[in-house]
Amino acid sequence: MKDSRIKRFFIWSSIVSVLVMVLLPGPLTAEEVSGNATVRYQNTTAYEDNTKISSSVSKSGNFNLALTENLTTSISYQLYIRGDFRDVDTTNKEGERFSKTEKTLNPSVELSLRNPTYGIRVGYRHDMRWRDLYLKKIEETKRFYYSELSITPFELPSLRLRYDKLEEDFGEEGKDQSSEEYSIRSDYKFRYRGLVLKYYISYSRGRERLPTFWETTSVERQERDSFNGSYEVSYSKHFWKDALAIFVRYKGSYSKSKQTQFVSEPGEAVVKRFSVAGLYAEGTLLEPEVEQLDPEPQLVDGDVYTGISNINLKTKKYNNIGIEVSATEDVDRLMIYVKGDISLDIILIDTSKWLVYRSDSNLPGAVWTQITLKSVKIQEYDVINNIYVYELQFVTSYQNSYYKVINLDFPYSTDTDVIVTEIEAYGSELFPESKEKTTENESSIQEVNLSLTYKFKNKVIATVGFFVKQSDSGDISIGDSMKDVFKNIYGDEKGAPDKYSRRVTRFYNMAVTWYAHRLLTVRGGINLTQEFDNANKRDFEGYTYNLTLSSSPVSTFTTSLFYTHFENYNFGDKRLEQDTIAWGITSEIYRNVEFTNDIGFSISSDKINNTETKLYFVSGSVNARLRSTLFTYLNYNIGWSSSNGESSSSQEVLLTVTYTPGRLLNITGNFQLTNSGGRVSTSEGIGIYWRFLPALHYSLTYQLTTGDTTLHAFNTSIIWYTTRFLRFQLNYGYTLLKDTIDKKTHNLLLTLTGRI
Questions:
Q1: Which of 413-417, 621-625, 696-700 has the lowest mean pLDDT?
Q2: What are the counts of helices (DSSP H) followed by strands (DSSP E) for the chain?
Q3: How does residue 303 score in pLDDT terms, banded at 50, 70 and 90?
Q4: What number of other Cβ atoms are within 10 A of residue 531's Cβ?
Q5: What is d(CA 330, CA 327) in angstroms, rounded to the nearest whole number?
Q6: Residues of 370-388 as b/e, b for ≥16 C-beta within 10 angstroms?
Q7: 502 near 534, Cβ under 8 Å?
Q8: What is the distance between the alpha carbons of residues 291 and 306, in angstroms, rounded to a whole number?
């Protein structure tokens, strides 16, 4: 361990150096120096049946200071320093006091050379963290070095070489470790008329230490060696004065990796599963579970700090958040990372507020089986940066390709937003006495698709096409994989299941649009979806027939009639048949009054369980600007369903009224009624946003939610811009959850923010 005097000298010399450069006169401009600082004080008290069970006082803050200067037109440097602190004192029901202190200081320097065809970046960051956790002192030091060379010649392949090294010192724990990574990447895109050629290759090798959340044994560090490559050839062309359009594409990828994981003790350990893809869709009250999820790469990109703005748990229910993993590995828990303080959340820690499902397919008609949750816990990942984790643990483990979670309620949080940043899957594995395990993976994905579109005198537009995706993993050559994907356009080339695993997904479609009359447009289509593998676990076939009649006699009115027939088969046996008919209207019924409405009926037959389900639904909205200062929004969803003599209904109505008498005052009221299967809940609230003066803002919100439990939530805040560069904010929040035990929380937050 280095002498603490050296560290203190380094810290203070870094601070003084930056301040001297900022304060000394010179040719610096305002854009070259930037910085901000924030100080917070928070006091939280919790009660159960009017008995204090805990109190917490938190003092925290951070500052950032950056100096950037161009030495020449191509060379520049940046000096940056950041500091954070958080001091929390907690007292429990018995009067026992616990203290937790955390401080960080992160000076860094970067030198960069920029040129139109090449660039060089080298940098160093020194991270220091001091933690005092309930009488246990921990001192951590991280030294991060990085260098990068990028070559981007005009219309030629690019090349990037990068080296990263992280040295870690964990003080008294004696765990001095280092992580490093070498990586090389090249990509290129060539265009010639309708022809496009692309490739991407990367190779990386390194070792790293992994974070852990559990007291049980888990993987602490890993070494990895990976190669990834992708290639694409596509061609598009228009013929006969754009009457015929052709698009054809072949796309492939190949990856090979070797990974060695290390644990502290032999035996069973918690291991993170490799994420194949992230998935997302937004459900509704009538259908909280969405059958087919859309790709969402940001959910599995490894970045837990950047939120996905459209997945906000604070503003939306029924978020279907999914992940695809290997079907041969056990999964017993999911981790949902969020950006937002959920440390006081007393709602989403209830297992009944989540739905979790598993499946081996993500296609229309796929069977999703519900998973029983054992517990929901909140884990701290990076409190200073406001990153928390919902840990959803299953009662038992499963081996499936797809998992998804759905939130049925909003979390309680003092933050305005609780945005999802990442999803991870974990399972348990046995480690030998050597306390390490090595795995090797080799996989390839091949895709072929074709689309033809023909226009008949601008009256009829016909489209036909197909898409084939073949996923292989195991002992297979890339050449054989490339040949077999073309055979799978028309045949079932399953390969050798004893050497490798294969999954094939195919889509065939035909669609016609007929502009029959100025007042009538007819659209129809047929879609065929197939999925099979060489392990005889999947053999799925789905047919969809659809017809739409639409008319728009005036620009402010459109009406459409929809009909869809769907049926699917599993190993040749019909599993499901469904017919849906709906009528929709979109209209501006009056000036500044927009109205939409859908009425529909659906009947589905489960041939396996010999059940029939009928669903009637009505949904719509009214968006009206009644006056220049008065806005209203009404949304409603009503559904009735019956199955084998049992019936249920659901209704949801949301009304929002906003009154803005001037630029300085905004008053909003809302009311929501939800009835799902006889369980009735209401939510009503008011919000006042008042700008007394240009420098003084005030807000107040109150929300009352009733149902199985009753929740009162009151929040108020004052923001005072004392100068152009200094802001003071006061927040007070009060919640009362009335259940078998009444839970009450008071929260006071003071924030002072400055910038230069």
A1: 413-417
A2: 2, 39
A3: confident
A4: 20
A5: 8
A6: ebebeebebeebebeebbb
A7: yes
A8: 27
Q: Which two tokens stand for residue 437?
A: 């395990």
All residues at 6 or more sequence positions from 300 whose CB lies less than 8 Å from its CB, including other chains: 275, 276, 277, 278, 323, 422, 423, 424
User: What per-residue confidence (pLDDT) applies to 28?
Assistant: 42
Per-chain mean pLDDT for the chain:
87
DSSP letter, residue 28: -
DSSP letters for 499-514 = TEEEEEEEEEEEEEEE
Burial 726-746 (b: 16+ CB within 10 A, else e): ebebebbbebebeeeeebbbe
Nearest-angstrom CA–CA distance, 524 and 546:
6
Residue 670 token pair: 């809302």
What is the sign of the dihedral through the CA atoms of 458, 459, 461 and 462?
Answer: negative
710 contact partners, CB below 8 Å, separation of at least 6: 704, 736, 737, 738, 739
As a whole number of angstroms, the distance between CA 14 and CA 129 comes to: 16
User: To 5 degrees, how large is the angle CA 456–CA 462–CA 465?
Assistant: 145
Spatial strand order in the sheet of 402-407:
294-295, 277-282, 319-324, 402-407, 354-359, 369-370
Report phi then psi at 478, rounded to 5: -65, -30
Task: DSSP letter for 173, please.
Answer: G
What is the predicted pLDDT for the residue at 6? Answer: 44
The per-residue pLDDT for 602 is 94
**16-39 per-position pLDDT tens digit:** 444 444 444 444 444 478 889 999
Instruction: Determine the average pLDDT of the residues in 543-568.
Output: 95
Measuring CA to CA, how many Å separate 66 from each of 148, 220, 367, 558? 21, 34, 53, 55
Q: Is 384 helix (H, G, I), strand (E, B) or coil?
A: coil
State the average pLDDT over residues 442-466.
Answer: 93
Cα–Cα distance for residue pair 370/394, rounded to 1 Å: 11
Q: List residues bridging with 349 in a β-sheet.
A: none
DSSP helix/strand/coil, 8: helix
Backbone CA torsion sign across 423, 429, 435, 439: negative
Query: What is the model's pTM?
Result: 0.78
Question: Which stretches does DSSP call E strand in 30-176?
Answer: 33-48, 51-70, 75-92, 97-114, 118-133, 136-151, 158-169
For position 90, what pLDDT does the model report?
85
Residue 176 has a pLDDT of 54
Burial class (CB in 10 A: 0-12, 13-18, 19+), 598: middle
